[in-house]
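Troubleshooting entry. Yesterday's outputs looked truncated, so today I'm pasting the complete records for two proteins to confirm everything comes through intact. If either block looks cut off, that's the bug. Protein one:
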Amino acid sequence: MSIAISCGNCGKKYKIGDDKAGKKFRCKECSEPIRVPVAENEFGDSWDELCEDYGAPSAALPPVSGSAASQGRSSSSRGKKRPARKSKSGPNVGVIAIIAASVLLLVGASVGVWSLAGGFGGEPTGFDFITQEDEAAIVIHPKRLLDAPLLAALPMDDSIDKFIEETGIDPRGIKQVTVLMQSSNLQTAVSAGPRALDLSRMQDAYSVVVEFSQPFDIQTLIDKSVDELQFETATHDGNAYHRITPSAKNASRSDADLVIGAHAASETLLVVAAESRLQKMLSTGGASTKLTSMLKDADLDNDIVMVALNDPDASANQQTAQNVPAPLAPYAKIPQLMTATTVIINLSGETILAVSLEGKDSAATQELNELVTKGLEQAKALATIAGMGSAPGSSSGNGPNPMATLTDFVNKIQIDTTGNNVAVTFPRPEGLDELIASTMVPAVAQARTAATQTAGRNNLKQIGIAWHNFHDTFKSLPPGSKKTIDKNHLDANGRPFLSWRVHILPFLGQQALYDNFHLDEPWDSAHNRPLLAEMPDVYKSLGSDTGTTTRYLSFDGNGAILEDGLGVHFRNVKDGTSNTLAVVEVGSDRAVPWTKPEDVEFSPTAPVLSLLGAIGADGFSVLLCDGSTRTISPTTKDQTLKALITKAGSEVVGDF
């Protein structure tokens, strides 16, 4: 299949076949680059001719091992239902977010990049990639952060496990991450506001260098993102790197021009940046700059170190001073007085925060000192009023008094001016660890519970849409009724070989996976059992450490929505679709293999909660037959729950 496209500059028309989707070529008339949404030129020019001036597409990497294609897995179409496949949405963001953020900056809250304080026996270091254009750097040490008491007390294991699952990387195995920034590009990119971001400048504003504690395999990153991205090998100045672009299915996105380069500088050092920026780093990196000198002088043996250069005469600083509220107007002048800033954070140290401002001259330094001192005096006054005389570490009734801790924190701040540097240090306040344990930990736990419930309900909504689309297509709820289901898909007892979760795959954008199943074989047959490892994300519960089992079950038997594992027509749901449960998210101890035709066996005599496993105090999520989702409290009356489970019991459903 081919479609016509034309050059946006000169108007020359081409027809390009879809095998060139996502590629670029130069127009033969004006040499302007054209991105190809589909490809094969029927106007007489060959692909090689089109690409000769621009460069033919780089050879793709070999197929990722472990994929269905590389394993030669057969796909059976015996008796398959063939509904129209629904398109699957692309990534939430472009390649920048997928690679720079998901792979590296997602490590950002707890990762850090290379040792800038010297080499490693001749191995490349961060110094080899700093360019003259870099104006700021953030160095983060993940293990230190994760081991710090303030963070160690937080429930982070699930987040770390999720990160490992999605990237194949354990953030605790990353030595350091450094983010290099060109603030001028960033300011230009965002100057027009969020609706008119200059993405080309935005992607050039950042680069990331990661040092792993053990040799890393870039193929691991490729394997985890191959569905959304395409990888090609490329070279620049004799340095090999991977060129990363959206996959063909995402080539039409507005951010499809964002191209990332990933360079393995050594067995433990990975450099990631926009391709154009990476090429500059490979050509001109290792420059001796003021930023490099400041990083050398900074004490990098801390959790986080941030260094930034500043042009006091920059127009942005002038504009900032004009657009701040009147009470803050005196402090808006600070950027116009300094040439650099260093910020050091150490969550475990006696000094938890240290900020150094470098004045542009002695007069500016004196004015900086006066402004900082004035600001500190005002902060102390406000803290004293807010603290209402509470003693440091005193209890508020539910733990340490936050205002007392704040007052102690502010009162201990020290200012020291030496030469042209104004240093502000923030000693560790008394009772901080106890305050974190008593306030943040419960808050994080509460937020996590809310996130888990939201994620569960979102999954249930997708499942509900799939149920309804299945019903519209086959006139029965999944996996089909006694009248509609292919009898070859039933065992000797008349029960389906495979779960309804398999039968709705085409309606979840998983037609290819569905085609791999033999529907006339048991879920654990020699052919079907390996497919357990390919469970779609929609069947995964947030925080559950499982790759093959699901907590999304329906109800079966004794008047429930399923009878002997088979579905019914909506006309049989006489209690009303808004009063009948379709799917429930059970406790983790009740999870089942996702392809296995096993659900909650409903018993009119057994308490419903006893059938659902370990349900927490915050309740459980359900999908109703009308497609709506709810979170039901575990204190709901058992009579009400049973009334919700039956589809034609004529019970009165109370509040739930």
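Protein two, checking that the full record survives here as well:
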Amino acid sequence: MMLRALRKKIDVKFVLILALVLTVVMAGQIGGYIVLLNQVLDEENARNQMLAETNHDLREQVFALQEQYLAIPNQLEVNPVAALGSWAAEKGAKPVQHEGRDAIVARYKKRKVRRDVGKPGRFVVDEYDGSGAVSFGLFENGEPKNVVLEYRFKGVPQDQLQADVDKIVADNAGADAIVRKIGALKSSLADAALAAENSRVEILFQFDQIKQKDAAVDDFVERVKTLVAGSGLLAILVAISAAYMVGRMLITRSLVRLKQALKDIAAEKEVSLREVERKDEIGALAIGLHQIQDAQKEANRLRASRDAEREKTKRRVEERLTAVADSLERGMRTSMKDLTNRAHDMTDKAAGLTRLAHDNQAQADQASQLAGANAETAAKILQLSENLVSNGDQMSRAVDQQRHLTGLASRDVAASQKTVEELQRAADQVEEIVQIIQDIAGQTNLLALNATIEATRAGSAGSGFAVVAQEVKKLSAETARSTQEISNRIQAIRSVSGSAAKAIATIDDRIADVNGAMGELTRSCESQIKASRSIAGHVKSSAENAEKVAGSNQSIQRSAETSGEAAGQLSGAMGGIVQALNGMREELFGILHAASRTEGAAPEGARPKVGMESGGAANNEADNVVYMPAAAE
């Protein structure tokens, strides 16, 4: 960086010297250019001035001829109205139009005057407001427009105005007026032709002068181009020569010596430069070379101490990584132990669920048998109802037996309901255990993340811990999948137990209906003869309810069998989880021990990235390690 900066400064100085020489040379050349350019500009300005004057004269003459040409019809025109209008405008008369009969009658009271202004070529001179005024009618294609134009002359008497109007009319009426106008036009054209010839001669003379001026300007420009090219080439040669001499004296020789000194320093030879006394960039570069030589000596001295410090840093990093491995192993051992204990608890819960399912199935079988007996009893009651009058005592005993059987069925239903509730509570407990396992898996994942961070900080020395962290992440993912399967099976058990609870509630309702029917039957026995038909109907209803109870007991039996199968599957899954956890624990501990042995046997040339910049950075980096606590319940 310093050499680049010095090189830039030397280049800047060289450029400044070259710029100074070029400035002196170019200043003289530019001065000559300015003088020559001013002369060229003066010649060009003179030529342009001549062209501008000639162009101006031509334009004025063309415009004058154009005006004369356009005025020829007017000069030959014999129109008293137009002549009078032009003369009135020159005198400053005020024009006033009277349009319509009413306006004309209001202005001209006399009929004779109105007739005169209504004829073409007739002019009426009268007095208006103490001054003279002349009026005439306006016509279009020989037809009157019912409009009278009046010119009012301020301060002009009527007599004088009448004389002037008569003269204008006389000059612009008849053949004599046309002859006079033609003569005047000929005289004017003759004068214009003479003036045009004089202008042509003068313009030709000006064109000759312009051609001479153009030739002189072109010759002068060619001489200026030759002079500019020669002076530019001379300036380039002078600048190159001056730059070479200055660079040779001030820069090149010293740079050659500095280059040789740099080679000697690279070969660890002693050098001494006299350029250190200079106050410019060359001197700064020489001082820098001496500083490089001193720094080389200091680097040789520090290299030995740095190697010793590197060995110390390596040992500290190895000790710190070993401590991290031990802490990780202790945390994982505690987490795995707690996870195994909870898995055993889940196995016990699954076994309890299996036993509850078997009990529920047995109670369902008993309820089914009671329902069958209830159906048989209802059939007997139906048969006895046909002989109700003669067998009242026998039917009463049958009714009592039926009520006893329905009471037993009600108790069995209550026991089944209790079993289903216990199954629900067991499922809730298993789900809590699944949540705990998921929390433990999350903490295990955090431990793996901590190990990954430590391995990253340790650099190449912690590659073994990176492998350990990856394996821990895989085991945590497998645990999460197993707990998800258990959760799905628990949901299935809940669904089955819910169906069983609904079926049991239905059975309870049916038994209540049977008890109600039995009550009605008991009351009906007091009036056997009057209610024989009613008793037969109730007995029939009781038989139908008994059949429904039997069907509901079959549903309970199927639900109990399904619950038993689900509990057996849960028990098998928990056994598999326990085996997987034991295998995971053994595998994880084996990986940790293998990583510890690998870190302890690291090659001699391996160095961690921590502590490379300075000797004390390794301790500070190791002290900032944060350890994740072991998983707790």
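Both blocks look complete. Sanity check on protein two: The chain is about 80% helix and 5% strand.
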